[in-house]
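assembly run, all chains below
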Amino acid sequence: MSSDGPRHGGDSDSEEDNFNPAPADMSDDEEETAPRAREEIKDDGESSPVHEPADDDDEDDAQPSNGATKRSTSRAADEDAEDVDGEEEDEEDDDAGVKKNADDEDEDDEEDEEDEDDEDDVHEGHRRKRRRDNRASRLFDIEAEVDDEDEAEDDEKDGEEIEDFIDNAHPDDIADTERLDDDRRHRELDRRREMEASLDAEKQAEILRQRYGNRRPAKGFGDSAVVPKRLLLPSVDDPSIWAVRCKEGKEREVIFSIMKRIEERIGTKDELGVTSAFERGGAQSVMKGYIYVEAQRQNDIMIALDGMLNVYPRTKMLLVEIKDMPDLLRVTKTPNLEPGAWVRLRKPAKHNGDLAQVIDVTENGLEARVRFIPRLDYGARDDPSAMVTADGKRKRPGVPGPRPPQRLFSEAEARKRHSRYIQGNPQTNTWTYNGDDFENGFQVKDIKIQQLIVKDVNPTLEEVTKFASGAEDGTENLDLKALAASLKDSNANVTYLPGDVIEVYEGEQKGVVGKATNVQGDIVTLQVTEGDLAGQTIEVPNKGLRKRFRTGDHVKVIGGSRYRDEVGMVVKIAEDRVTLLTDQSNTEVTVFSKDLREADDIGGQGSLGQYSLLDLVQLDPTTVGCIVKVDRESLVVLDQNGEARQIMPSQITNVLPKRKTAVAADRNGSEIRLDDVVREYGGQQRQGKIIHIHRSFVYLHSNTSRENAGVFVTRSSNVMTIAAKGGRISAPAASGPDLDTMNPALKRNPNGTANMNPPKVFGRDRALGQTVNIRRGAYKGLLGIVKDTTDTHARVELHTKSKIITVPKADLTFKDKHTGRVIDINQRGGGAMSGGRGGGSAGAGSRTPYGGGDWASGSRTPAMSGGTERTPAWGASKGTSHTPAWSRNADVSGSRTPAWGDGSRTVNPYDGSRTAYGGAGGRTPAWSSGAKTPAPDSFGFGSRTPAYAGSGSGGGGGGDTWGSKTPAYGVSAPTPGASGNDTWGYTPGASGASHAYDAPTPGAGLGAPTPGAALNAPTPGAYSAPTPAALNAPTPGGGWQGGWGADTAPTPAAGAPTPGAYYGAPTPGAYGAPETPAAGPRYTDDD
Amino acid sequence: MSENFVAPGQQRYLRACMVCSIVMTSARFREEGCPNCEEFLHLQGSSDQIESCTSQVFEGLISLASPTRSWVAKWQRLDGYVKGIYAIKVSGQLPDDVRTTIEEEYRIQYIP
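ok done. output:
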């Protein structure tokens, strides 16, 4: 170079001329040279086979001119031509073949530099030689190279001032170069001294060349000179990259260790063959645990990493394939934080995970000013945290205990304890407290962006609303856009389920629509349903997917937004935002499609937690309600008073399970159960299906009403059965087993109700075993025995021929099998039984008045009136005494009417019935239970006495039973006669009022003694029985007596099957009681 | 060339040049400036300039031993720079004035 310098002397004018290289065809004229040179290059390239041996030389030959051409072109014509340059270079590369690839750029650079020199250095031969030398031995070339660099450096310096070096500096360049030559050398020396001694010359040269070689074009041509990445793709000549395991989290240290080792050994004989090493660690990186080392040979790495901490080269070392190499260095663009965006805090430990909003980002993008809701305790826990621990150290101010809840800053609170720490401006509502800034209640803080979580923020609406409502004017100024952006990039919680219709909106498969068939991790398998790929199954990462809906789809919001669990119809779709019209409130809401699912349930969510629509729930000990509406957080229940109230789930004590067996009686006394259809009596006559029965209330559901979800509540006594489930007939004409008898009202008046419609017969159908006469139909007039019955029909075995036919019960006339008398089996046994005996007629007579619809009406009062009607009947025996008798009863059990009301009818009747069936055991509790006991007692004595007497006369066994059961009776039992007397004595003693009883009783007593009178005995018995029954029945006494009756019954029953029927009948405690005593003896008689 | 090694305890003071992405401690930046970009960044002795032109936020470290031969260096466009530790990704933005200056005269470091 130095030799070049003088040559050129000062004549810059001749430069172009001098510049012309060896090839003679180069013209002096620069304008001409350019195109020519270009042609030449191309020719060279194409003709290279011809010049094969001289290829390199040709290249070299061409290069200078090429370089010169470039210069001149760019100079003369158009600076943007670098693009063309680039292309030319590419061409060269191609032509020159692969082997040059690695060095190409360097060479180009060199050549560029050399071009400059060449401009001075016209001597082609020298130039060529130098090139060769360069190739042969770089070391030899150093000086020249360095010179180049120096020159370049100078040029650069010029360039710094002149900006575009090539354009402007070129004309003067030579002179400058000349002039500065000496200085340059000195400086170079100085510089080199500064360089690390160990850096060998070649490296240094290379570095310098790289450094400036690279920069120069950049300087000249600006950014566009940057080589596109695709040209930088690794080739086979590049060193390989191995992935080496290392300790997670120690990647950086390892890299530094490698650097250290490299530097230690550089220039020594065991210089490392490693060209570079890098790591891609990081908390979220998938590449942690590895470092990547670039070297020519694997052995280099082994040497380099041998004995190094935290890295394990001896475990498996992976060679990274060439095509994968660029991926190792791929960087993901950090999303730029924009003011308004939502982030989560990581750093102030107290606020870890809290949502914050970016207010501002510093210029260099490294810090952001965020606002968030402070967690302050205003010094409430200051003292403990400031305490000095036992060992004299202050506690670490880490995260002491639970962090205070998020609350907006309150000046008043802060002043309480820390008034001196607080300062600020109430006008602007900005405060400084304990070194923190607060604005409008929010804490405002500058936080480094590495301490912010920017991705997958997923702000919930609750959190966001806190920020919104904190606005000065209280208006909601939600920046939905920012929110959407924050939400958009979080695919984390998007879940696809098989069956979802999914659209690919990103990537190569964009636009494909399919149905998910399988979801595994992030990969969704799609069965494509639309487009060219229809029918195929493809796998796509769930990143570019979104659910697809159509207008009109019925969808449910499954998450993410506050509309969660709303169900509605899609009315509009824009991008991934879906607007839907909710079923429940008919409002339009807009949500992201990822938060939607196709809904298969209709009409909104039917449940809130464990409570679902139409459940019966207990609100307090006395109140129940039926859930008629389920909102997101509340329920509407219809309580038993028909009042709809809104409650929180927490107000519900418990859910009352649906009792399938719950039974109630309607106003007709018919049994009603769940799912029966009933109609209100009176009122609006609403009709509905029973969904709940609770005590005396029934909840009905009607499809015709929309109020309260079609649910209304009423009293069971206020409904009439329309249709019973399963075809139960609730009001058959004949007696049948019907639980209506549970209705105590129906039970009350047994004797009066002889032909009562509602069958109030427990246990066996009384018709069973009865001799009957068929009144209608083909078998009219025939006699038979009832073998089996249903509610309405009886199967009758005909006497005439051995055949069993089914006849409606209504078509039967019951007859006494002995006497042939027509009887009414529904009557009290007494009447029926004694029918022929005369007492029966009396009974019938007395019955008749009762027979009326009084019973049917279910109102007891008529029953009572029946009682009064009876009075005449009684009156025959002792009419006047009745009233006292009644009153006396009233005394005992309270006024009877109330007594009925009180005595839970349900219980007593059951007890009564049970007693009848069950036997002594069951009875006793019946007895003991309730306040009736006294009443029964009084009655009992009265009524029993005759019974007793009867039994006494009938057979001692019966007496024994009695006696055994109740000693008290037992006393009277021993001697029937005596007992009769006793009773007499008793009754008056007990109360004079029992005259009424007296009448029967004596009858009984009289009858009892003499078997002959047995016939008579029943009669009074019958009478007496009814009377107390009538009276007693209402009162538990009835039940009680029934019990007794049952007891006595068994024995006789054995003896007399027929009476058995009666026994069944008596069972209804109501009449049972009176009957039985009477019956007992009678049966005995019969036997 | 001085040691590029940084003891683990000092690593918290590391900063990366936003132009060439070389990683050094801030102390070293202050003493020596950026070995690649000093001529236009003028970091030497200027804490302010260091503060604005280097970043504490960077990811991925490259230990570059041979900038010329390394493909990594080429790919990262570090092949003109000195040996040392570089970052793969540097977050942060240069101040506008510095940036325009550089753009006028040099190519700028892209923050990929």
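Residues 7 and 77 of chain B are 27 Å apart (CA to CA).

The first strand of chain B starts at residue 14 and ends at 17.

not gonna interpret more than that til we talk
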